[in-house]
Amino acid sequence: MNQSRRAFLHTTSLLAATLPLARFRLDAAEAPAAVATSGTPAARRGLLFDEADLPRIRANTTDPRFTGLWQKMLAEDMAADLDFLEHHVRLNDQRDDLRRCQNILERTSFIYLVNRDPAQLALAKRAMNRMLDFPDWDCFTEGGKQILGMQRATEGTFALLLALDCLGDAVTPAEREAVEQAVLLKGIPACYLAVYGMKYPDRVKGWEWSARSNVDKYRYISLKRWPLILNSTNLKMVPTACLGIAACYFRGRLPQADAWLELARSSAKAFSTMYGTDGCYDEGVGYWGYTTIYFALYAEVLWRTQGIDDRQLVNFPGTVRYAMMMTDPAILEGGSSVVNFGDAAGVVDVSVASWVQRTQHDPVSQYVARAVGRAGSYLGMFWYEPKAPEAQPEKSLLDHRMANDIVVSRTGWLAPDSVLALRSGGPANHEHADRNSVIFTAYRERLLHDPLHAAYLRTEPRWLLRQTEAHTAVLINGQGHQYHDGSEGTNSSWAVARVIAFATGAGWMTVTSDATEAYSLVNDRVVRVHRTLVFLKPDVVVFLDRVALQDATATVQVRFQAYNDDHEGRITASDHSFTLARPAAALTGWVASTAEHRVRAGRLALDEKVGVFPFAEVSTAAAAEHEIVTVCAALPTGGTLVPLAITRQNRTWHIQGTHAGRTLDVKLTTAGNAAPTVDVAG
Question: Which residue among 4, 140, 598, 672 is buried most deeply as judged by most CB within 10 Å?
């Protein structure tokens, strides 16, 4: 849609400028007419459910997959929530207080839908009214005046409209009108401005922090380039989805809704290219969940209410497989975790998988919905079908080079299985300076770690956790590769790595990634930074790190990070080996290199109050060319470890020995800037 600036102003800012006196004249008294999935006119359908869906939704609250979540929702302290709503809401705090009002509304309205509890209804209405009390629904502005919707105005718009469906006839006509008018005046214009600005950044007057919002500690972050930066992040899809959902809700009642929907569909189509053809997602699996659930909500509402099918814009079955591949069986922070490259953390939520199974009848998505990750969102209960057919992922996904060049190799999909992950690929929002970094889990322990919960603000000490030195990666002269300074938030760097070789065989996988470009942005004498991995399943990983400089010498440090958030990680080191020990398992690394080297145990330069982050480090003497081989072998605690031999003849590294009853025989032959030739005997 190539809408003019004048038309844009008429559909957004001029409408919002009349707040709070304006009222949209709606053609229907209750809710919008819609189109059935056949494309013929029909009575209005609910955004996510109809009356016929209620028995299944109610049954899902008692299904073993969701009963824990349901009981947790019922156990929430309603008295504390009411006290907050009555006495503690700050109407200039959209980031925290408006979000808490929204969370209360979502929980209580869904509970009321299921059990018709009048106490939940009363609390839901109070939360709804408090959301309406906020004069602004977000903490950003366009041109210093108009509110720009990124999260609160966007999520809040959807939450309010869905709550109208959940509360049904318990909402009076006057209450419904108040919600609809608030969405029209404070939600939709904010969503529209954000989506429009990302589509037409040259027409943006200037995005700024709102002077009326309680966000002082964030004001140093420059929003000048955010219309460009956010265009490839989750903060494009969320306002796009919520604008589209609201357009569907009001379509047929307001003529402007057609333009809103056209912009939303255009934006969703453009954003769909942020997913790889195989379904991978660059921001990491944690942000995949947030982004993809809103994409699913948008596609579901568009299909249900308008008969328009955008459910194929993304390879949704593939993106569920991406989430599956990014699961990690290690027990971190009290539950299973994810391959947490970048800011990703936590566990995979099953809601998207439930929707994909229901809409595309994918048995792998059903397997993920039933057996993987966490049932952490009530949205999954709208879609979950416990008796649908299921199947484990295809065997080819056990060793997968994703479209974005992240590589994950594993022995299986269950808790005892091993997972090895390599972070190659290009920049992404929420990334770290982590090119060629590695995560390795075996015997239910995270044995090579990527730090969790790095700071989003550069002013906080844990910003260090974003740097190369905090990863299982390479430093040159003690420096990592290029990264930004945080002045614009957690946006992308310029650092790129590329997979240049990938092969698999019976019981093994090998990959070589080239991160030369990323490091040369810091040191222009760098001409090679290659990392080759050979994974001998289930518990041996061979590292070959090759670094070369032109007309210069440098020292190289190779770090191996231990998981210690629970204070149970221990590291010991000797001249040519190290051991990273966890309660249930340990990993020992033997080292050889072309330059003189030493091995030491260290920890990141952070105060103990922030956390203790231990690592093993291999450090070489200065040279123009480096080849460093580290052979890492894992065993359960109490297992018998036999040292593995590393020798070199001409350009060939040879690793031999016996581990856990298996004979190992691997050769890696190097030649210039090509990937090494890897030979795995047997």
Answer: 140
User: Cα separations (Å) of 313 from 250, 288, 449, 592, 627?
Assistant: 23, 15, 35, 49, 45
Give the rounded distance of the alpha carbon of 403 from its chain centre.
Answer: 16
pLDDT score recorded for residue 15: 47
CA distance 247 to 260: 6
Neighbours of 309 (CB within 10 A): 12
pLDDT one-digit tens code per residue, 532-553:
999 999 999 999 999 999 999 9
* Structural tokens at position 391: 């199947």
CATH level 2 (architecture), domain 396-632: Distorted Sandwich (2.70)
Cβ proximity of 152 and 235 under 8 Å: no
Q: Which two tokens stand for residue 627?
A: 């080849």
Q: What is the mean pLDDT of the chain?
A: 93
Give the end-to-end CA distance of the chain in Å, rounded to a whole number.
Answer: 59
3-class SS shares of the chain: helix, strand, coil, % to 5: 35, 25, 40
SS3 category, 378: coil
Pairwise CA distance, residues 378 & 365, whole Å: 18
Mind listing the pLDDT tens digit for each residue in 354-384? Answer: 999 999 999 999 999 999 888 999 999 999 9
Exposure of 400 by Cβ count < 10 A (0-12 exposed, 13-18 middle, 19+ buried)?
A: buried
CB 429 within 8 A of CB 232: yes
For residue 682, name the pLDDT band (cuts at 50, 70, 90): low
At 148-182, the pLDDT tens digits run 999 999 999 999 999 999 999 999 999 999 999 99
Question: CB–CB of 541/534 below 8 Å?
Answer: yes
Full 3-state SS string of 536-585: ECCCEEEEEEEEEECCCCECEEEEEECCCCCCCCEEEECCCEEEEECCCE
pTM: 0.93
**Domain ranges across the chain:** 275-393, 396-632
Q: Which neighbouring-strand residues pair with 678?
A: 668
- Say which residues have a Cβ less than 8 Å from residue 523's Cβ, sequence separation at least 6: 476, 477, 479, 549, 554
Angstrom distance (rounded) from CA 434 to CA 424: 8
Nearest Cα residue to 48 out of 308, 360, 298 = 298
List the structure tokens of 120. 């939940």
Instruction: State pLDDT tens for residues 17-75.
Output: 333 334 667 764 344 333 333 333 345 689 999 999 999 999 999 999 999 999 999 99
Residue 217: enclosing H or E segment and its boundaries?
none
DSSP of 629-664, one letter per residue? EEEEEEEETT----PPEEEEETTEEEEEEEETTEEE
Average pLDDT estimate for 103-116: 98
Q: Phi-psi bin for 114: left (phi > 0), alpha (psi -120 to 50), beta?
A: alpha
